[in-house]
Amino acid sequence: MAQITTKTGDRGMTQLNPDRISSKTHPIIAIMGELDELSCVLGMSGDKFDSIQTFLSELMGYLYYRHIDVRRMADQVEFLELYITSHNNSIPTWFVNPRGPTSLARAVCRRAERSVVEFAESERAKPESERYMNMDPIMQYLNRLSDFLFVKTFERAVEEPQLFHDELATQLPLAAVA
After folding, report:
1. What is the pLDDT of residues 61-98, one digit of tens each?
2. How many CA atoms lie within 13 Å of 4's alpha carbon, on the beta-carbon side?
3. Exposed, middle or buried by CB within 10 Å (0-12, 13-18, 19+), for 40?
4. Cα–Cα distance for residue pair 120/101, rounded to 1 Å
5. CA dist list (Å): 28 to 32, 56, 62, 80, 115
6. 22 forms bridges with which residues in the sheet?
């Protein structure tokens, strides 16, 4: 079993990948932390997101080992796209304020996506031999995952409208106030 307490973290350092110890502020460490946070929020949602949580752990492994299983990534994107396409009718015609862990997961996913985009943009300025890894498949996956979570939030609004009822909105006139 791997040693949990290494004490390198006491000095703000951690294992970035098998070849490198790095600052805990390294963008890849931050991205892995956001993916971990996303998985935790999905776990709190009460919905069945086990396969997505498992894949997020796999994705963190891709980042750690600097290698992406491109076929597996494509399969995951395709699964999300098929779900989104087949559930487009679940999107209600009314505005839904974000509520609950699935909405929070979508927001955390978008933050992780922005971090990946920022890192990818900084990497593009480097010669290819010095880049950490190709982040494009990860950007695509997180973009699709946030869309999927958006659809899941709307499904919840349709299934349980009482969770999304806004008492104040029903008490105020709909005219704009200047």
Report:
1. 999 999 999 999 999 999 999 999 998 876 666 666 67
2. 0
3. middle
4. 28
5. 6, 14, 11, 24, 9
6. 14
